[in-house]
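Hi R.,

Here's the input for the zinc ion complex you asked about:
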Amino acid sequence: MDVTDHAEEIASDLGVDKEEVESDLRDLLEYSVPIGEAKQSVRRKHGGGGGGSSPSPDTVDVGGVTTDHGNVTVTARVLSAGTRTIRYQGDDITIREGELADGTGSISYTAWQDFGFEPGDSLTIGNAGVREWDGRPELNLNESTTVAIAEETVAVDRPIGGDRDLIDIEAGDRGRNVEVRVLEVDEKTISGRDGETDILEGVLGDATARLPFTDWNPRPELQAGADLRVEDVYVREFRGVPSINLTEFSTVAPLSDAVSVADDAPRLSVAEAVGSGGMFDVEVVGNVLEIRDGSGLIERCPECGRVVQGGQCRSHGAVDAEDDLRVKAILDDGTDTVTVVLDDELTAEVYGGGLADALSAAQEAMDKEVVADAIADRLVGRAYRVRGNLSVDDYGANLDATEFEVADDDPAAGARAALAEVAE
Ligand SMILES: [Zn+2]
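And here is the predicted structure with zinc ion in place:
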């Protein structure tokens, strides 16, 4: 249907002038009002009434919902239902969110009140609002929405319920359940919107992957080594990797069987790893092409930990900078490159000495660069196996190394070719 068709529909429904309706519609569309909303607004203006007497929403397949719809009616299966409290216009409100699906597709939803449905339920959802989120349509279930059990079970070809392996967890997931071992856990105090709050941060593992977590409502069951079933978590992106969040609504129960945790990180090519958009724990093998500026003996701001130049922090101005060791090495495996970042401990290992040694070497040479030069002499042109946490952003890919060892297996010859090219 084009604008003229929509105008004709409204005009004949309400018995009003079609030209006028069409001109009003076009005005609204020019301001990027979605067609569904524009139609409702024009109906109201021409005496169609708002609220209760608004037109019945389109009944559509889940796969057919677009951001052009104002309101829709769908019959769908509930795939997941997570619970969360958010602050909305100054109030804390509890929302439920997850995914719905039918045979044609799936869609995220937010329910602003508890309609009482659970994963697996087949529902006819009447008059759900459509909003755009991240370029895609989402359903808003609000006080004007009706929810009824559907007459027939809706068949779907997607997993019902929130159970997932860690490798399948993605940022944006809601209402997920995981069976995991707590690998690391630390207590932290952060200053949140309601003052100081205690939280737990750490790492969870299963046979498929490891992921960081935050428990916003610290509970004693989350101890290192505990095997747990954790239900109703949500997932957000933190430093480029999915992070599991436990809220007051999450439940934690001990498992009687031990969770097996993979010792090794998945080994990927650099291109595959970078292409994933960020991974918490990954292993790559490649040749060190060069050592970047800002390696060796560096200075950090004592407030924020950022590297400073000439004692000036970008955020804190003139500071009493602290000496530190770091390496930023460009690693190439023939598929792509990544900047590997070594912390002070790993840097001391590859340098063959700690901060005190580096400082005295720099003093003796009256040049800080001797430290970076010594590290470059050792690393450049050699193959390394690197395990760590990969983040990818507009500035490139960084792999914060947790392990950095000379590779016993020979990586792609392509890297050596690349090295030769650089040398030419
Ligand atoms: Zn600072």
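One thing worth noting: The chain has eight helices and 22 strands.

Cheers,
M.
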